[in-house]
Amino acid sequence: MRQSDRSRKRRLSTLASTKLLNPFLRPLLKRGLFPKTHALLETTGRTSGHPRHVPVGNGLRGDTFWIVAEHGRGANYVKNIEADPHVRVKVGQRWRSGIAHVLPEDDVRARMRDLRRPVNDSVIRLMASDPLTVRIDLDAA
Fold it and tell me: Which domain holds residue 63?
């Protein structure tokens, strides 16, 4: 994909996420009212130091949570993770803490096949400009 196409795709996707989807999903996920197909990721703002919340596809598998960041290191939450890997994830009514690891060498397509989230992964394939895997090792339940 050409850089200009990637940049255009990222701008459109970011606009849809930040202005349309996230403002709708975030409050529902905070209250635990949205289906378990999604989760809420909490990072610490790299500049502000304040908690930041972003809806993500539910990648909970045992004591590991997987994220495929559609814009890779261009995503603000990935930048926050790289500055401070201590995060929390809320699935349903429950928050869990953990340490996030950015995995640039991971095979994103294989990871999505393993996660088996058809709707979420279809959107990622459609909108992704530079997909990247993030693994969160969660504290024991």
Answer: 3-138
